[in-house]
């Protein structure tokens, strides 16, 4: 369901809490009077896809892998996936330095490379694996890792896949982590997601800077994140010193 808030050119993919939190952050930064038809803000991938044919400059917020949409068009905004450095910091703070395997898809490969570079810079031994369901078990057995870090791609890596990965990791004493609020529900240990309100504020700031004639980037990664941990699972895995 797509709808636009009355008198405000902000289109939201659906009225679910994350998108409404983002909208609230946008409203904190921008007053209604500041918004105009000069630019439109899309919250979520479906809203961005719906508005992508419009001629006005388009701003997006909480969009997964926005590079899929950013071409020659004037599209600017904030991705769903957080800053790689923010992710690396949270991993080091929670788990220390461990061997990490990044599980990625074709859609997430660019972000996976950014994360790979950041993790190496922060001292993590890290490798990547492309997600292929038919060969996943065999491919995982060939990799040396302590933490399996799953990049989000809900159309490819389903909840059933996450549940299988959770059991795989639990049986082998490995730690399942990811950028998704589905990780712990599927049986994983740790999930890292952007702070939705902060994503909205950052989107509003980008829009405001553009209106003032400043030069802005096409893609911004949220620096503020939220971390959730399954402490019961942590005890089973011997992670007794998790902050």
Describe the structure.
Helix content is 36%, strand content 21%. It is α/β, with parallel strands linked by helices and 243 residues long. It folds into 2 domains: 3-80 and 195-223, Rossmann fold (3-Layer(aba) Sandwich); 84-193 and 227-236, Rossmann fold, CATH 3.40.50. The strands form 2 sheets. Strands 1-2-3-4-5-11 form a 6-stranded mixed sheet, sandwiched between helices. Helix 1 packs parallel to helix 7 (196-211) and helix 3 (84-95) crosses helix 4 (109-121). It is elongated and about 55 Å long. It starts with a strand and ends in a 7-residue tail after the last helix.
User: In terms of structural class, how would the helical and strand content be classed?
Assistant: alpha/beta
The general outline is elongated
Physical arrangement of strands within the biggest beta sheet = 1-2-3-4-5-11
Question: What is the helix content?
Answer: 25-40%
Mean pLDDT: 90
Major sheet description: 6 strands, mixed
Count of helix runs: 8
DSSP strand tally? 12
As residue ranges, the low-confidence spans are none
- Strand residue content: 15-25%
